[in-house]
Every structure is written in C-alpha cells, then in structure tokens.
Task: structure prediction
Amino acid sequence: MRKRFKNLLRIFLSSYVTTGISAGLGLLIIAASVFFLFGPLAASVATVGAIVCIPPDRASPRRNKFFHLLPAAVIGLPLFACVQILHDQPLYLGLLLVPATFMAFLAGAWGKQGVPIVISIMFAMIFSMAVPSQSHGVSLLVTCGYFALGATAYLLYATASNTLLNDRYRAQVLGEIFLSMGALMRIQGSRFGAALGQYPAPQPGELMQKQAELADELQAARNILLESPRQPRRQQLAAMLINLLELRDHLLASELDLDAAAANPDCAATLDQLGQIIGQLAKAVENMGDALLRGGIPPSFTDRRSELADLNWNVAGNAQPGTDFPPVWMLLRGLIHRVGNINDEIVKLNRLARGEAEPDLALVRTAWKLFVSPTAWSWRPFLLLWRWDAPPLRHALRAALAVGTGYCLSLALPWATHGYWILLTIVVVLRGSLSQTLERRDSRVAGTVLGCILAAGLLVMNPPLLLLMIIVPVAQAISHSFAIKRYLITSVSATVLSLTLAHLLSAGTSLEFHVFERLGDTLIGAGIAWAFSYVLPSWERGQIVALVNRAVLAQARHAKIALSRSQLQAIDDEFELEWRLARKEAFDSLSALVQATRRSLSEPRAVRPALESLEQLLARGHQLLAQLTAVKSLLIRRGHLEHDDISEPMHIAAQKIDTALTAPHSDALPDAPVYKAWPIENSAADSLDYDLKPLILRRLNLSVDIAIKLREDADRALAIRSAENRQAIEDKA
Result:
C-alpha cells in the first residue's frame, strides 16, 4: 500500500502532470473569459482554438517556446476556416481533408518536435467539423476570429506558463531521471543477486531496453537543464545531471565479468552481497529523485565503501592459487571496485543535492553550449523527405488514404451527428510503425469503453451546468498529461471530454445515442487505422541499414577518442569534451537501434530484420562501451602508471578497433592480440595495490575482440538485408 501511494505521488508530482494541469488551467481561463465577454458560442470556438495549440505544449526550454507552438495556430487557422466554408458541401470537404492530411503528416519529418504539430493541424480540421457553421447568424469571419482569439491567448499563456514553471520543470525532469536510473540499477542488482539461483535473472534485452529509454530521457533533460544555467540552483541541477551520466557509465561497466564470476559457485555469496548493495544504492538514487519532485532536500547518504572494503578482504582471505588469468579473486575485486565507483558517484550526487559541494561551473557552461538540441524550425527535414522510401512520406500517404476512407464511410453510416469521431480516432491511433499503431489501437478501444461507462454514469445524474463546465478542462488536463506516458488514461479522459461536450452542444439528442455512437465510431476508426498500417508500410528493416552503420561508426569514433594519447595525457581532467560528445553519440545510436528492434517484434515475421544478429550487435555495443569505461577507470585508479608503459598498447588497440569497425572488407579484420603480456608484479590477493597493467591489457584485448565480433554481427545483419533487397528486385523482374 505504501509503495502504491509513493508511485501515485511520483506521478502527481511529475513534469507531464504539471504540463497537463497548466494546459487545463489555461483552457479554463480562456473559455471562462471568452464566455463572460462574448457568450457561449464564442467560448466554444475559442476553446477549439486553444485545444489545437495544446498538443505541442510540453515541458521544454524557454528559448523559442512561442515559435515552437506557433505553427499549430498559423497552419490551423486557415484549415479551420476552409472546413467552415465547406461544412455543408461533403464532396468538396472530402477533397480538402485528404490532401490537407497528407501535408499535415509531413510534419512528422521533424521527429518528436513535429509529431505534436501533426496532431494540432488535424485537430483544427476535425474540430471545425464539430463547430456549427455560421450558426445564430454569426459570420465566418467572426467565427474564425473567435478561433484565433483562443489560439493566440493560449500561445501567450503557454509561453508565460513555461517561463514561470521553468525552474520547477528542471527539478521534476531531473527527479524523473533519478527514478529511471534507480529502476535500472535495481535490474542490474537483481542480475548480481541471481547468482545464488533463488530467482531468475532479468533478460539482457530488458536491461538494454531500459538503457535505451534512459538515453531518450537524458536528451530531453539536457535540453531543459543545460539551458542558460546562470543561477546557482540551475547550476546545481545541471551538475547533478552531468554526474548522472558518469553514474550510467559505471553502472554499464559493472556488467563486465559478471557472467564469468557467476559461473563459479564460490562467487555466488559475494555477488549476492554486491546485488544487495546495488539495491541500497538504487534506493539512495530514488530518494534523491523523490526529494527533487517534492522540492526538498534528500536524506544524507550512507557511504557503502566500508562494506565494499570488507568484501575485498573476504575475497582476499578466500583466494585460492590457480593458473588462470585473471584469477577468480581478481574478477571479484574488479566487480567490487566497479560497484565502488557507482557508490562514489552517488556520494558526489548526494553532496551536490544537499548543497554540500559546489558544481563545476566550467563543465556546466561548456555542456550548455554543446549538449542542447536546437529548438528552431529548419527546412532541412522537409527537403530531405522527397524519396519514395522515406518513412514520413509513406506515412503521410497512408494517413491521407485512411482519413479519406474514414470520411467516406462516415457519410454512409445511418448516423452522421458526429462523423468526425471516426477521423479523430484514425488520427490518434495511426502511427508510423505497426507496433505503435497496435498499442494505440488497444488503448483507444479500451479507454473509450471505460470512458463511455464513466461519462454515462456521470451524465445520467443530470449534474448542474457549472459542474459540466469544470469537467471539460479537468478532462483536458488529464488527457494532455498522459498522452505520451499512458495513452489508456488519455483515451478515457478524452472520451469523457467529448461526450460531455456533445451533451452540452446537442441537448436534443439522447445520452444513450451519444454513448453508442462514440463506441461505434471508435471501433470503426481503430479498425481503419489498423488496416491502413499495412498500406505502404515502412517496416523497421528499412531503417536497419542506416541505424547499424550509425552505431558501428559511433563505436569506432568513441574508441578512437577514448584510447587516444591526448585523452591519456588529460586523464586527470574532469571534463574531456570530445570524448563526452563521442560517448553521447554511441549511446544514442544504440538507443535508436534498440527501439527499432523492439518495434519490429510486432511486425509480420516475414518482414522482420535479422533479430539475432541485431541483438548480438546491441549487446556487444554495450560491452565495448563498458570495456572502454573500465580501461578509463583503471587508469584513473592508478594514476602513478607511467604513460610510456600504457600508451603504445592503447594506440595499437585503437588502431585495431578502428580497422575492425571501419575496414571495407571483413578480411581486413585484425587477428593478433594487442600487445605482449606484462609480467604480473605485486599481484597477491591480500594486497590492495596489486599490479593493474595486466588487467588493462586484458581489457584492451577484450575490446578488440568485441569490436571484431560486433563488425561480424553488423555484416550479417546487413548481408541479410541486402539479400532481401536482391530477392525483391528479382521478384519484381
């Protein structure tokens, strides 16, 4: 019960719920103001104008916020007017809807920035169908003026609200990142704890999926937290975000040698203790996240270094002589050390969060300039999509055909009061990939059923008008809050919203008819969206070539920079800008490939990519990042190493990895080890100062071996794709 309450509190205090509340409050203010100034018709049309501008209103940087929302109003107004003109001419209205839908969905070429604009533009046309044309003697110009009034008012409100809430958004977004990191750490801790065999270990795919989701969240957090960090509180939060990136690296590196150690029964007890410590560290990270969401100070963190030191001595006391390198005691000590690195980063984070340590201002300011995504609109995505295999172009054609089909069917149905509900369902369900469409379809249907039951139970009691007027913005707030996180909740609230509005606008129609019509139209619209997801499909395998090549090149660049002599000479610097940029691209490229691979699981088996090769490639990509992180950690751990001792092996390893990942032919892959082994000096198990040079050399050799296998996996995945292309050409011939 307590855990459930904590989860509900986290949701209520989240950034997406705050944006939903802000949107609902803005809608209420605009609707109420226009109602008292100009009457109910003006209020309903102005409400439509405001709703059209709501989808792109998310927690975002202050910079260019107004211009980020502006396309929704600028494009939506003329389309709203055109639908009003053609309201009573079904043929011409259909001829407008189909090409307008095609152009609207082209905004998907701008990715996450463009998708909400697609929804806004479609809302402008579909909701215009719901507004009576020139009713009560009101002219078209006046109706459009009310729409423009609502849209403009919301643009100004949303810009001001985002500015006022900016500091709150920074804390909330960072708190959500802490909670995601804590969840990832718990999964990793369960992998350690599974060594005793008391419960099954999580699947590697689950871990990679969580890492991919975290990478997406981190970029959104960078955009907000690293924008103009000039105030002390903002600098503190930005520094905590940068430390979280270091924590992620150490968490990834903690995976190294885990399988080898778990295979030895003598290691099970130590691994279980390490898993428990990671679980305690995860709780500390989640406590910091909760404190950020509440706006408080987190509790002081109990350093776990003493427990880790005890484990170190226990490992030394139980060490058995052997001939294998590295011996088991060295593997365990390496794991303990990497968990210690996680502990140290959490100590730093806790001190930053409690105001006991000052942020590195030079690091924060440089990150501000280089790690924030651009917010201005550019014509480049639009110019690059005009090729037949471009997914945004194919999706726009697919959507136009689906909307045209839905519109024709709505005209043929025996009920035509709310034919736009079919179109609305198509727009919100149909997505660029089959997996997303299926997810939306199921959530939309289930949410509509629940929403109809809830709305019917509410409206059958004939509540007063004031209560119904309050329900509309509340439902809008809930709908906007969960549109990305939990679409089922959005679907329920949107159904309540639409039925309440229909009840207000058409008192002569029975409630029962509205409910059954809504259910029928939703089922029809969801079915059309599902059917058209197979028309001009953009299967994920079509993107695999570009994603695989991006991931391989990103790994090569990261390895080259991480093992360069310049990085070795700057090993004590806290900020190594070029390496951080390369690391970010390596993680982002793997994240994109993970997401594409996951989406492909919902596609027909005949069109899926080479999943086995892709999964191996993803696993080895994360392993290579972990190995290079471990090399860096070992070098920092023993700063007294002579650069001349290690520079040549690192240079050779960098060359071999680069050759393995970028050579045009597989016969150019290296096959020799990096360097001759160093003699092991001062390597007794009971010594805390044992020689690390053999371990560094082992990491370098393993990195080269992983790079070779990664390239082989990539070649297999691309070869299968090339064979499929050739077969398709032969079939057409």
